Predict the 3D structure of the following.
Amino acid sequence: MALKHLIERFEQWRGINERLVLGTVYETAGSTYSKAGARVLIDGEGNYQGLVSGGCLEGDLAEHAAAVLASGKARSVCYDMRGEHDILFGTGVGCDGMLKVLLQPLSGEGDDPWAPLARMAELAMGMEASRCAVVVEGEEAAMGSTLLGDEAPAEHPFGLHALENPARKVLVYPLRPIPRLLVLGAGVDAAPLVAFAERLGWRVTVCDHRRAYLERGDLGAAEERIELRPERLAERIELSGWEACVVMSHHLASDRSYLAALADRPIPWVGVLGPKARRERLLKELGDGAGDLRDKLRGPVGLDIGANDPASIALSIMAELTARRT
């Protein structure tokens, strides 16, 4: 489940001062629905955002979460569904795997309210990669203790570590910013791309010089809709911190102006609609101004799945971006 959606639900529940439990998968073995780092947020009524399984374990996890809220102390839960162990849980999921989940209580009280999720959300909504270290096993008083950002150890890769105390098990993992997609052009085929991207947990901004296109009503999933002339893109938009950009104005001169602004900018993936010949024409017209686009411009954009309509083209684009990101 996308971190973006978990954070959005967290903000809703925090707004009504709901006591919450953050569940984090920290160890797995065999075949499991999720891997270490996956999260689920559970409220006092057993409602949840996010998944650690296909929905089979969340009900039981909510029971453990209720106990965590009652005690105010973090705890870990192990689900072993390998072989005959699965019968004990009565789930019959057939995953043939094991996973361990840390449950941490969150509230608006104390010196550090809603820790650690409030700080994690702040870091995820930024533009710089960060990291987290959390005690997942050990003495009760230390369970759930979390270090974020520069406080977390930088010398350890993703995984479980003892660090300085061999009696404790610590999960160290990266905190990547929520991915951001810049869509340049608000034609009717931008709508499914924006919708797919948001559903997959991307923050999306759409730009176009045609106000009527931006106000059409089918771009509601976009975080921002900005009216601007293509040649003013670099003046209006900070062109750093984006994971990807799709140029899709369906107008050759506009696409050329957008690409001129994107050349030699720190956006690692740039795509343009249309056949390869159109991409080559744009690069030729840009000349020396094409800069690093000669190496990184994708066109035709998206995986080759035989896409031939707005929805399937959007699917192919997000499939490529998802594969690249993961």
